[in-house]
Design goal:
CATH superfamily of chain A: Bira Bifunctional Protein, Domain 2
Pfam families (chain B): Glu_synthase
Strand order of the largest sheet of chain B: 4-5-6-7-11-12-13-14
Domain Glutamate synthase (chain B): 194-359
Protein name (chain B): Glutamate synthase conserved region-containing protein
Helix content of chain B: 25-40%
Organism (chain B): Lentzea albida
CATH class of chain B: Alpha Beta
Number of strands of chain A: 11
Shape of chain A: globular
Number of helices of chain B: 17
CATH architecture of chain B: Alpha-Beta Barrel
Strand content of chain A: 15-25%
CATH architecture of chain A: 2-Layer Sandwich
Helix content of chain A: 25-40%
Order of helices and strands of chain A: HHEEEEHEEHHEHHEEEHHEH
GO molecular function (chain B): glutamate synthase activity
CATH topology of chain A: BirA Bifunctional Protein, domain 2
Shape of chain B: globular
Largest sheet of chain B: 8 strands, parallel, barrel
Distance between the termini of chain B: 50 Å
Strand content of chain B: 15-25%
Oligomer: heterodimer
Distance between the termini of chain A: 26 Å
Number of helices of chain A: 10
Structural class of chain A: alpha+beta
Radius of gyration of chain B: 21 Å
Chain lengths: 330, 414
Amino acid sequence: MDTTTPAPADPRAHLTSPATRAVLRVQHRVLDAVREHLGGRGFTEMLPPVIGPVTDPGARGAKQVDVDYYGHRYKLMTSAILYKQASLTAFDRIFCIAPNVRLEPLETSSTSRHLAEFHQIDVEVAGASRDDATRVAEDLVVHVVRRVVEHCVAELGVLGRDPDAFTDLVSGRGFERRTHATAVADLHGFGHDQNPDAEIDWTGEALLSSKSSSPFFVTDYPKGSRGFYDRENPANPGRLLNFDLLAPEGYGELCSGSEREHEYAAIVARMRETGENPAKYAWYLKMVREGVPSSAGFGIGLERLVRYLCGLDSVWQASAFPKIPGVVSP
Amino acid sequence: MTALRAGTFPEQAVRERARTGAAAAFPSLSDYGSALLGEPVGPAPADALDAARLVPPVFMPLRLEKLIDLAREPLHGDVDLATTVGGFTARLPLYLSAFGSTRAVGTDLGLAAAAQAGALGIPMVVGENVVPVDGYTGERSLLARISAYADHAPDGAGGVVVQQSTEDADAEVWNRVYSDPATRSLLDSGRLGFELKVGQGAKPGLGGLTVVDGDAADRLAGQYALEPLGDRVLRSASPGTFTEEILRQQVRLMRNNYPRARVWVKLPPGRDVAAAADVAWQAGADAVTVDGAEGGSGWAPTASLAGVGLPLAECLRRIGSPCGCLLVSGRVWEGLRAVKCLAAGATATGLGRAALLAVDENPRSGLTRLVEAMALELRLLISALGKYHPSALSTEDLWSPAGWSVPASSMVAG
């Protein structure tokens, strides 16, 4: 893949190009398939807030965007996680197509898979375990890919994407799983210096992804690599009951998810472990203290999924109005 | 020179060094050839570090090594002071300690100290609460201090370390600095770091305290605890809650979120300082800074200043042989105390009040001259011990009337 594909200089040229039109049609089909699949399984689609007094602090090194809300400092959402947990007091199974804004570190401008503004297909299920969540994620991805392969032959043709790339994925064999510790050992085996206590770094993620022909889960990330809401495994302290789903062919992470912390004291302690000041989470902690359901869920990066489906060099090509970190654009 | 005062500090001696540089490392030159010199008679030692003496040996195998290396007798000028300080290449085993947002640090002093520290090639720490109180951009801001440093730093030397405390997390100081194009050259050259502030010497167990006027108090309301203090307002930040697990995970999260930045942890002089330092190093901190109870430039309750926290000497004793980079501060302003700290296990010593007084005395070159005098003393004293790099120093170089006892578990074999 070409990691140096420049951003479009002109929105008109980008929007009117046959490639962009094909990509946006695939995106439309993906959203249809998501709604078809989850709607048919008892999920209620909700509309997530865009601003709030606090948002997900879990994004690696990314700056949040402040909004002056009648004299109060509000944030644009970096993810819907807090509202997803809260929404389970209304429905047991919810999803949303959530817009997120993260002012990512400038180094991410060259990863080909970061946008400062993007969307997540966010799913949360009350009473679910991590295994339940990975099953939902896998079924959803397989369904979406099948629908795209069935209905977007012409678009994939325009983009030069061979539908056979998804043969393994739709075969029904199931996605492989490996733990974070195994992934780290694999990377060390490839000669990559991966910190065992941290998130898989961008280079390591691309390396693992390039060695696979089908999406695969990485599970059990170490505490200290994720936000306070990923549940610590009581049977394996220091490890989280969470997962990432990585696309093959070097496309990297598509999705992050976890079983959630939902008990008040555990959440407060985990907030401190992640350097957070609990005072600013007042509304969320009040809800948690009064009780929110246990749950598991995930968020799939919509543009990343579309990039993988379309075989694009860079994730910005999967956005009508892309915002590459640090690049001033419409 | 402003109205800056430091009554509990050897202020006049520091100011003299800021004026005259290396000459101040000796008795008055006008006395040369006429005065009969000897051990100065002064006030009783202020603490165990002052009471300790450096004790050169007669037999010096490391001097022989240096002689063989040089093919001539070594002199003090052969001492190499370049040191790795918390992951940065430093030209001297020194760093500029954090100054907070207290009023004693006016625009000129903070910027002057930053520019000179940059030119000297020693790391600089920028204190917490600078952003919430003075802002991110503007004259007194965090970015102004960072720019003043970066504009003067030689290639490949020094580094800037930005503190963040619990309340600063709300302002996302680290995220902002890490994503800012203005700091990219520092980041790209491996010269940006973040320091987790767990506590400080002047008020162990308490968070940051500043006295603000009514307007500033209105701005800070909702973010900090505020209470009237005379005709002003006392602004208190929380010290933050730490357990072993919280400290371990916060350090790991810093390494996870800012993989290209160095990670420092600042500890207060607590009774479990050795255990806390170990947790930080084990979690991957590039440096642990320990502020002795005698340290600190900031506002603090008189009671805390008078009787809370371990003196630096006791912190050094409890830590023993550090298993990572240990940086210490606390009334260090000249080479003798600095070399004692290095011999007791530190990799470098911080200049806090001394640096402020020096730039107050001379904003253009006060800190440069103070450091010039220290560098000469460091070279003279380290060579007197028969050693030629700070890392060769050890507790064998120290003698104290009370004995310089080191925990048995921390003794280095041989």
